[in-house]
Request: fold
Amino acid sequence: MPQRWLNALWLGKPRRQPRQRLVRYFDCTWMSAWGQERARVSSLSPTGCYIESRFSVPPAGEVVRELTIALPSGQVKLHGTVIDAMSGVGFAVRFNELDTKSRERLSALIDIARRLTPEDRWGRAAVT
Reply:
C-alpha cells in the first residue's frame, strides 16, 4: 500500500531503480576546518551517506575531503559535498567522482546485507 501512495506522488511514474541504502553504523573520520573529526555513518549508499556528528557540522555546499569509512571489508576513502546539515545532529554527503572500485565495494556490501537473514544479522537464532 505505501508504494501505491508514493507512486501517486510521482504521478504514476515508478522509480527506475530501487534505492540501495544500508541503515547501519560504521565508524568514520573526516577532515574539518579544525582537523580530523571522528564520527559515525548511520546510513550508507553507493552515492552518499549520513554522518552523525554532534560537535562539528559543515554547512550545506561544503566539500568534505578525506572521508574514511571503516567497512567490514576494510576502509574506503571518499570525498563528497554536504547536501544537508543540521547543527548538533549531523549531515548528509553526496559522494563526488567515486571511482568504480569504491562504488562496487559499497554496492556489494549493501547487496550482501539485504540478503542476510535475521539470524545472520544478529548472530543468534530467531525467536519463534
Q: What stands out?
A: The chain has one domain: 19-116. Residues 19-116 form a domain with the Thrombin, subunit H fold (CATH 2.40.10.220). The helical segments are 2-9, 100-115, 118-122.
